[in-house]
Structure prediction request, 642 residues.
Amino acid sequence: MEKIANIARAKTNGSFSNNVAFVNFEYSAQNLFTADGKNPQPCFENFSINQLLGEFLGSDADFSSYNAQNFSFMGTGWQSWDAGWEVQPGEAYPKYRRALIPAFAKYIDVPCTPKEKYSPDFLQGKFIIYLRWGSRYLVIASAGKNTAPVRYTVNRADSSINCFVYAKNKTYQPCETVAKLCVFFAPNFFALKQCIFELFHDSRFDDLSFLGERCGGWESWYNHYNKIDQNLILEDLEALGKTENFIKLSYIDQNKPVVFQIDDGWQQATGQWEINTERFPDGLKSITDKIRAKGYVPGLWIAPFICDYRADFVQQHKDWLLRDKKGKPVPAGFNFAWGARGGKYQPAKAFNYFCWDLSKPEVIDFVDGLMEKLVNQWGFGYIKLDFLFAGMLDGAFASGGAAFEHYKKAMEVLTRRKIAKDGSRVAYLGCGMPFEASYQYLPLSRIGTDTKEHWDSKDMKMLDFCGRPSAWINMKDTLGHAFWNGAVFCNDPDVIFVREENCSLNIEEKLTIALVNYIFAGQMMYSDDPAKFAGGGEAELNKKIVELYKNLEGVEFGLRNIEKDVYIIFSKDANYCGCINLSDAEFPVSSGDLRAIMAEELDKNFAENNFELVHGSAGVFEAVDGDTFIVSAHATTIFSVR
Prediction:
């Protein structure tokens, strides 16, 4: 693999507070150079897996138990909607069948990535990756705050790891830092989580303090989607504190801060962020006043970097669009609602939408003015910034330079208003955003694909598209990124579902979603319609979820992915364990398996302990031979350890 010319590497050793050793590698350019089109993602390092293991185990160690064919792999994903879960030995991430809708690949491909052969031996990762053998993790984290995003290719066949930067058109000054990598070897899940905390946690999280220890609230998307109007929003606002819905029981009745978010559908068009007065005749300021009068934080969805080419505002500012070398607008993705089928209002393939050129000062001024309006004119204090990946797409930037440089400047502008002119606090939620380029600016962020009121989407599943809205994939992403929560991001796992109307999820699936979100993430959102709260079974399920949360309050859980879509969970205090089964088949778990995994992860002996049921029912699992439990498909069981 060709490397960047004239790279110098510096190496330093150290240890985290839990005595886990780390090695820092810093790479700098000794001469000016530009990444050209032939090598748009320059390779700056090639490790062997044994070389890295030798840093921590010693060069004379027996590496037979760390064979390159038998590790599980976590590749992080490029952005919120890319595959963010662990794959097992011999398994690779799905290969998207892009022929039908090629623009969906924008959501999961690092821009400018050269085509590479698909193979279970060939794995791709971004930002933070790990290789896992049992309870032991070999981790590589890109920790350079002002450097280009890092991509890795891991080859099981030759036990190699190549490291690249997405720095196309970046001209480095002499000795300028290209990348910083931190490599460490953690003996268990909680050591992994602590090391990531020490590496990434900082004062960014202080900006979220006004939202409480675990942000929670209501949003309009996962029921109404973009079919919203003023009457519907005000009805739900009035009902949120009156019906016995999840947010009332968990937040309002407990005097905890509550977000009330208006999602997509309020605007005239995507890219034309003016109020649709047919739907909201009194504007949005009147609604934010009513939200604040209830004691809630007003929230709003917006996608500031993308646009529908048909919008009047876009037609007036076509010179702001990001374009390729031939002068054509760069497609940012595919959405039936945000693009024309063809004709003069579709300069790309059917239903593509586009993005702004963030290198243009007038675009940055537009973004700045947009946020001023949302925060200081309309009064929003929680703003969901969506489809941010579009700001990292490659193009012929009007001002030259690299995509990540323009993106970082735009993010500084987007998120700079942390206190409004009236003194109220403002928080930002990132979504659809490139993880590495965004974490400094967006401590609260979606770390997985959109969820859905159905377990999965059969049509999109046939394409092997890992970024599809899906309750199943959403939970895989949430579990995969669990070790980030409170460190890299306050993880937003998306919403839970309780309602019976317009929802095909069964009770056990709803409970699994509710438990995964509560145990392994940092925000709890709800999108059922409080104005149509049904009572009955819905009320009973609400009460059950709230009771489970009370029983598990303050308990810190770890996990191990033991088989595709099956996870063993265990608490740090050794008082709880269980199994999450996201697969489509029943899964047998023995008490011996639970004891063995807990012994490895917690370094304790559990031979004499008994397991008592905390969550589950006869319909969820049943004893087999007095020792093995059958966990139903899409279900979760939790035991107390006595």
Observations:
- Residues 585 and 633 are 5 Å apart (CA to CA).
